[in-house]
Design a protein that fits this description.
Elements (H helix, E strand, L loop, with lengths): L8 H9 L4 H11 L2 E2 H7 L5 H13 L3 E5 L7 E5 L1 H4 L2 H11 L17 H7 L11 E5 L4 E6 L5 E5 L7 E4 L2 H8 L5 H6 L3 E4 L12
Amino acid sequence: MKSYGQSCALAKALDLIGDRWTLLIVRELMIREACRYTDLRTGLPGIATNLLAERLAGMERAGLATREEAPPPIATTLFRLTARGKELEPAIAALGRWGAPLLAGSAGDVFRDHWVVLPLRLYVRDRSPEARPLRIGLRAGVEPVTLETVGDGSVRVRPGRPPDADARIEGAPHLILRLLTGKAGLAEAQGKGLRFEGDRKALRRFGCRP
């Protein structure tokens, strides 16, 4: 990995994470927490196998990621972010916010269903954390996910369909995010193709206009 050779914190950071694909590998590890190599390949369409191996090795040397041999029945190598790697979350969140307006011009780009998990986790907030827990089923593609309030204003997002959801929402990822971050009302989102069933009042917890 080349260095800028500058005594500057930003330059030093870019020495470690400025290479192509590195931050997207961080994204995958933030979403899945523990990743098989095949998971990473699936979540990074377009990356060459040798380049992925090279980037992972560089992240390990930099103390950003670690690998472990999982016992049976998994019996495979799992990659995880270290505590140092997890400290990149605010930077990832800020870059995501900055890049969000650019999604309008990405109609032909590849999308993976699980990518919706990270912005949901980073940007959706429960405005009534003292109220009873909520569970919402979401589908932005093929793979369903569950969003749960956890009592501190944040939310937990995990794969799978909840059996007893307060509401279910299905539609394009940008519509789901706009709805649950209070940037669009339900009627507006439904007019653009979003589907909703369940307790409309639950949306007020996220600043939405039901």
